[in-house]
């Protein structure tokens, strides 16, 4: 953070520099959610100088800024200078969203509460610290088609909840999660599932056969390193 602050103090108004740090955008957004001043200023500068690589990233960035009082004030000042930003946001939220690996349930809730995510189709929470608690946020995403929970603390309780609500889901990655047969049996409600990753989970042969029978759209199912393999 200290190094970032030093860089920003000398380079934050240089578009070339801001374009070069687009790869750091997930980390910057996570710090912004936690009210790091340098990150908030950097995100505003990226908007101000049109130094964000694509529309989805720009909308994610706006949501991160709006999630805190300080970020909202800084964003409002940028909008005063650029009316087009407000127009962009009013057209709907991003279609894709990837949270940084250190993100928690709280970070996800804060981000999703700060903007419009009704158009979100693809969400990756892979390698984050989210748990079953994040399911309360996930069920608020009606357009979700792709959900990646690889190597999280997600388990049966969360799977039961999303199975009831996210019946348009087509791709679900549960690799290296804590789900068991108890939770996996709820997946039979998700009739649109095409791809399912159950690699390294507590899947039994009986449950796997039931899923194949009751999920007619299922085309791919990774069951490596399970008892059903």
TrEMBL record:
Source organism, top-level taxon: Eukaryota
Protein name per the record: C-Maf-inducing protein
Matches recorded under InterPro entries: CMIP, LRR_dom_sf
PANTHER family reported in the protein's UniProt record: C-MAF-INDUCING PROTEIN, LEUCINE-RICH REPEAT-CONTAINING PROTEIN 73
Organism: Rotaria socialis
Organism classification: Eukaryota, Metazoa, Spiralia, Gnathifera, Rotifera
